[in-house]
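Thread: Branched-chain amino acid ABC transporter substrate-binding protein, structure

OP (GT): Posting the sequence first so everyone is looking at the same thing. Length is 372 residues per the record. Can we get the structure tokens written out before standup tomorrow? I want them in the notebook alongside the other entries.
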Amino acid sequence: MKLTTISLAVALIAAAGTASADLTVKLGAAGPLTGPISHIGKDGENGIRLAIDDANAKGVTIGGQKVKFELVSEDDQADPRMATTVAQRLADAGVKGVIGHVTSGASIPASRVYEQAGIPVITPSATSPQLTTQGFKTSFRVIANDNQQAEAMANYATKKLHLKKIAIIDDRTAYGQGLADALAASLRKAGVQVVAREFTNDKATDFMSILTKLKGMNPDAIFYGGMDAQGSPMLRQIRQLGMTATFLSGDGLCTAQMLKLSAKELDNRVFCTQAGLPMEKMPGGLKFKERFKETFKADVQLYAPYNYDAATALIEAMKAANSVEPAKYLPALKALNIKGVTGTISFDAKGDIKNGGVTFYSYKDGSWVAAE
């Protein structure tokens, strides 16, 4: 009798243990955690952490098991070659989905690795149209692409700023050159003269030879396709040369870091576009901004809300499919339609976000202010 009671108790404990057993699901993150744009990579990683913490706090059950999501983060250094190594490392680690990469130059080569492994990957910030025109089934993005951004900048530059002659410089990365090429095409359609196409690289800090050449052309504006680590010294050198040209750029310079780096040079002649909406215009932007600051003791740099939505999209697709296996939840991801922090998250046939917004910012009183 005593043995039977003990056996029954052991059986009940074992059954209870089975019912509450956690399934750990690894989600990968890839971006620059070291190097000149590590602040953007860490900003995004923190956005992902918030999404995972929220999902774990709510308690998600998939396939009859309580799921605990775990972040596996890798540093791609914003380097195309490192990106493929990192992608393979994440695939080998058994991640069920990836949020990344941050730059187009890293995202495009890495996307092939994820496609071959059958792992869905959502970039929060890579804007090159090339990423989603490769025909890959596993590549998605939650932000507007360069074509949309360039068209918005061209319209604003011509209709609001009345610029006639624009010089273009890019850093020869997939992002910088892609945005510069798209802008040049949009400007020509609008009848604006592109007086020069110059290029540098994403490690440079001395632009005097390029800028001295441009000074002789007397452009109304200089556009730079690249990131804030180069944009800041470039703007400083433009002003050192006494050039009064308007300075234009894309979302790589629409950062809190740019405000710090170029505090002395920024004025009402500096503008940038950013794919997406201002945080105060995002459905969940202000609440996210407060939570982010409270949690990480830092301001949102740029893409943290998009990282949050990308991670949430993967989790919601798994829930909809009742499976964490990529092959099973991929169709649910393609059909996804949810309300995110940044807006509605829904993808077109190529994997691009539907109805991606673009905002034009001007500098005013120490901040980026949404102009349109």
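GT: Both are above now. Quick notes for whoever picks this up: The chain has two domains: 2-143+283-345, 146-275. The first helix runs from residue 2 to 19.
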